[in-house]
Amino acid sequence: MSAQHVKSANDAKSREDKGTAPARADRFARIGDKHAAAGNHASAASAYGSAADRYKQAGNQAKSDEYRDKAGEHDELSHGSREDQARDDQGRFAKDGGHTTALVARARKRTKRVEFSHDTPAVKQAEAALSKKLAAQLKAIGKHLAAKLSRLAKPTKMSEEGDERDAIESADWAPIAAVVSDELEAVARAGAKQALAKLGIDDEDITSQTFTKAVDWARARAAELVGKSWDDDGELIDNPDAEMAITDTMRDDIREAVADAIEAGDSAAELSDTIEGLSAFSEARADMIARSEVVRSHASGQMTAMRESGVVKQKAWSTAGEDVCDECQDNEDEGPIDIDDDFPSGDDAPIAHPLCRCSVVAYFEPTDDSGAEEEDDSEDE
Ligand SMILES: [Zn+2]
Description:
By secondary structure, this protein is of the alpha+beta class. Helix content is about 65%, strand content about 5%. It has a 4-stranded antiparallel β-sheet.
């Protein structure tokens, strides 16, 4: 179900990418030049490949071809330098008889696998803070709507077609988007930071660009959550395309409660109690939303870092815990896929459903001078 939601956030992203594809291509080209100058051919090939993809996306076929060729050249060079190293190793290890093991270990070290995690203090803190704030906001809205809607219970008053909708729309959602935005922006940034560190990226341009995009995504998601988007002046406006908005569920719950109450001949006070007691406004619902949205933004921050890094070619889905649902298991079973592809559930990154704790895995070629963390590839050796 959240497949559509992640898609919608990504549709916005891909619309935006079409506009900025040339800028992104230029940036990847510069990153490639940096790696090439440093003699990191595998990383240069990877970045040039990304530049070629972006130029193609931007409709610049000539540039795309040029960088495709450069990627090929540096790919060759990286194999060449690997062979040189292999020959060196062979000479060195022939003396002590350990050559085969050494060569295999070196080949395996080239592509690294790193798994990102949601088990961090930043995530826990954001979940707890957001759960509490959201519970207070939902409760206030429940009270407001109970007062507004209870008049519909009077049997003498025929409720008009638009009455419920008007009442529901009279609720003020802006405070929810604002508190949610604070927490989600912080956690998206934390996810991006974690991923950049694990990928060994400390380039200032990449880092600031990654943080900007991660935070923008989280801010847009906060508005989408209550069926809105931000206009150019930073004001919330209605967004008919919003996916997975909590307001959709709320509307359905309220309509049902009002219809039932009218049919049962409930008094205004009874209907008011029913609405305030709806699970849509409960602490449990607030907690579920908080946990789901925090992990969603954290994972989105990680994905943003992977995309912006220029070194990640593939990704995989990693399930968490013991009670894994079929949807997430299918995603994991798919194994590594292209970084721009969707998993079988239709999501391009976790989460696949509310309360999903799955994380994403990156396959990348580290820059030789990078501070990429070493411990994560230990299982491959
Ligand atoms: Zn999952």
